[in-house]
């Protein structure tokens, strides 16, 4: 099956050009093919932009075990709508993904249910280093250096040393120092307002944990990705990367700050906590400067009922996969970034960080994971229109300019102007860790 997408302006690795793209089955076959090329279908896309599908390298999709919040099917529908064609999911499900067998089980679940491409991290515990060392079919190892939702935590220095010394997969971590978080919590008797969340999980907690992780990565010469950076101070630590370190920002840390607790309460309670307006500015600057390479969501749904509980019973996390691309496209209109930067941060860079084969670029031979974007379309986010099972968004009522209107996964249209095709299935993402990561291949 051959499809020609013509009339669109395409964001290629080499720049933005007006060209046609020829897809054959699941791959991009050619750019600007000759007029004589045989095609089965033509998609006329005048006035639109064609970009690679978004690769979201940090999501929590709750299956197995927590499927009252989300499952791989509902989450992947939300991805399709949001232009996310590949996701990497975290191990804090129930049971946790801490063995190769559980990893294989998750991959099998996703094969049956996911409308978009999928990959799963293996989670570190103080005692599973042998599993981590032999794990395959995974982007890498996730360490909760500070605890968050669930009970995964590796805080013990000897255990961390062993993980960095005895494994070769890239490592990423949730960096909030557990000792600092506990001391802060005790100092305000556990906290009673949502704003206390940012006093408990403060800048110091983030900085101490990032320093500790960077020290481990440098001493063990181990590739390391700092998840959801939330402070200006952390971004400064990332200036020295030695070809090993990459970092990431999330839309909620770019766009929300502590002033939003008064309006949104627990809806903006997440880990790491939101910080100040100055941190918002610094995170944008760090992306533009290349201190951070990736934008990912940390999509972490909880039901509205769970979120309505008073602090500190209210759980941390918010859903975002179906709005993250639109939030970043709208930011172009706000003068914060360019379309090329959005594509780099959300598509190409995450694919390179995790050594994905054939993802994140519009180029011959790459997978036909594509998104057609209408940069002038204005739409309002509404809770009752959300595909995520929890059916709410902290951006409810917000109008954004710039939306995905059509999404292809492996050459098949999975979303088209409001309609999701439930019959489409994504594929298992292939990782070739011999590629050597972002600094070698970006
Ligand atoms: O706020 C968060 N929620 N941060 C995390 O790191 C985990 C996530 C969750 O799984 O709920």
Keywords:
single chain; Urease, subunit C, domain 1; six-stranded parallel sheet; 21% strand; globular
Write a concise synopsis of the structure shown.
This protein has 442 residues and is an alpha/beta fold. It has helices at residues 72-82, 100-113, 129-134, 157-166, 178-187, 196-200, 203-219, 232-237, 251-255, 261-264, 277-289, 304-307, 324-333, 339-353, 438-441; strands spanning 2-6, 9-12, 15-18, 21-24, 27-31, 41-44, 49-52, 54-59, 84-89, 117-120, 122-123, 141-144, 171-174, 224-226, 245-249, 294-295, 370-380, 399-409, 412-416, 419-420. It contains 15 helices and 20 strands.
Question: Which SSEs are present, and which pair or pack?
Answer:
Elements: E1 2-6, E2 9-12, E3 15-18, E4 21-24, E5 27-31, E6 41-44, E7 49-52, E8 54-59, H1 72-82, E9 84-89, H2 100-113, E10 117-120, E11 122-123, H3 129-134, E12 141-144, H4 157-166, E13 171-174, H5 178-187, H6 196-200, H7 203-219, E14 224-226, H8 232-237, E15 245-249, H9 251-255, H10 261-264, H11 277-289, E16 294-295, H12 304-307, H13 324-333, H14 339-353, E17 370-380, E18 399-409, E19 412-416, E20 419-420, H15 438-441
Helix pairs in contact: 5-7
Bound molecules: (4S)-2,6-dioxohexahydropyrimidine-4-carboxylic acid.
Tell me the Rg in angstroms.
Answer: 21 Å
Number of domains: 2
- CATH architecture of the largest domain, please? Alpha-Beta Barrel
Anisotropy-based shape: globular
Strand content: 15-25%
CATH superfamily of the largest domain: Metal-dependent hydrolases
Number of helices: 15
């Amino acid at each position: 099956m051959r499809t020609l997408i013509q009339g669109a302006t395409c964001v290629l690795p080499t720049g933005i050009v007006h060209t046609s793209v020829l897809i054959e089955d699941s791959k991009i076959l050619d750019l600007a093919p000759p007029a004589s090329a045989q095609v089965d279908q033509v998609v006329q896309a005048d006035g639109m932009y064609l970009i690679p599908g978004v690769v979201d390298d940090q999501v929590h999709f709750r299956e197995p075990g927590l499927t009252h919040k989300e499952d791989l099917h509902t989450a992947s529908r939300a991805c399709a709508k949001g232009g996310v064609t590949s996701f990497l999911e975290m191990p804090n499900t129930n049971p946790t993904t801490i063995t190769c067998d559980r990893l294989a089980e998750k991959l099998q679940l996703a094969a049956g249910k996911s409308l978009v491409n999928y990959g799963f991290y293996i989670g570190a515990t103080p005692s599973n280093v042998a599993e981590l060392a032999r794990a395959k079919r995974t982007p890498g190892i996730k360490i909760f250096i500070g605890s968050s939702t669930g009970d995964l935590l590796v805080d013990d220095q000897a255990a961390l040393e062993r993980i960095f010394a005895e494994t070769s997969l890239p490592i990423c971590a949730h960096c909030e120092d557990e000792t600092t978080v506990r001391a802060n919590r005790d100092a305000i008797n556990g906290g009673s307002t949502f704003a206390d969340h940012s006093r408990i999980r403060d800048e110091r907690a983030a900085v101490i944990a990032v320093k500790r992780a960077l020290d481990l990565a440098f001493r063990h010469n181990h590739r390391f990705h700092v998840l959801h950076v939330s402070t200006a101070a952390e971004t400064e630590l990332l200036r020295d990367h030695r070809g090993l370190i990459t970092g990431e920002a999330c839309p909620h840390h770019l766009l929300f700050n502590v002033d939003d607790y008064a309006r949104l309460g627990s809806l903006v309670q997440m880990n790491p906590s939101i910080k100040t307006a100055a941190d918002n500015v610094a995170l944008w600057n760090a992306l533009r400067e290349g201190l951070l390479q990736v934008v990912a969501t940390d999509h972490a749904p909880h039901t509205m009922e769970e979120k309505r509980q008073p602090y500190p019973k209210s759980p941390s996390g918010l859903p975002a996969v179906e709005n993250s691309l639109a939030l970043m496209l709208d930011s172009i209109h706000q003068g914060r970034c360019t379309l090329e930067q959005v594509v780099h941060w959300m598509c190409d860079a995450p694919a390179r960080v995790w050594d994905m084969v054939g993802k994140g670029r519009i180029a011959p031979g790459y997978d036909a994971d594509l998104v057609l974007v209408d940069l002038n379309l204005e739409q309002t986010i509404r809770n009752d229109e959300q595909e995520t099972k929890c059916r709410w968004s902290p951006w409810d009522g917000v109008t954004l300019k710039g939306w995905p209107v059509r999404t292809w996964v492996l050459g098949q249209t999975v979303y088209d102007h409001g309609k999701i095709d439930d019959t489409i299935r994504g594929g298992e993402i292939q990782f070739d860790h011999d590629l050597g990561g972002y600094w070698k291949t970006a």
